[in-house]
Amino acid sequence: xxxxxxxxxxxxxxxxxxxxxxxxxxxxxxxxxxxxxxxxxxxxxxxxxxxxxxxxxxxxxxxxxxxxxxxxxxxxxxxxxxxxxxxxxxxxxxxxxxxxxxxxxxxxxxxxxxxxxxxxxxxxxxxxxxxxxxxxxxxxxxxxxxxxxxxxxxxxxxxxxxxxxxxxxxxxxxxxxxxxxxxxxxxxxxxxxxxxx
Length: 197
What we know:
Elements: E1 12-16, H1 18-21, H2 38-46, E2 50-53, H3 57-62, H4 71-74, H5 77-99, E3 103-110, E4 120-122, E5 140-142, H6 146-158, E6 165-168, H7 177-196
Parallel strand pairs: 1-2, 1-3, 3-6
Antiparallel strand pairs: 4-5
Helix pairs in contact: 2-7, 5-6
């Protein structure tokens, strides 16, 4: 390739949920750090990964002062359509990177989220109607959030390579932050070494 076309870029990208870069997008009461989760981004930096921030479906749909909600409240036609529109934009980026041989090393999200959970989301039939005091941790269940489901579908329908999806358990107040970060470090090391093969 022409030397002018080569520079120091790693050609590896991680797509990251908005709230990991800007905790101000989280629903009130669930922020575990003041601005961004520095330890997460230190890890990405050490592995030479570029970062693309995905938009926050909940903030764009209901705003910053939205009520806490579980997946069963977001699992409706209008919100799924909104999530698919955002997923199309991310898939466009991923497809553009694929066309020039770049790798999407991972999709990084927030486990426990009703929209962005990867292995952990929330569901509680008692949530809905008049707001009541409920414990969010009691609503955590295995499964993907609405946005992650729509993003996965969009990538699959286009026949794009599926990067590994990873959810940091930041919405689980009982989860230990050191353990969360330790597991994340192992995941990133694995994702980077897998992509080298």
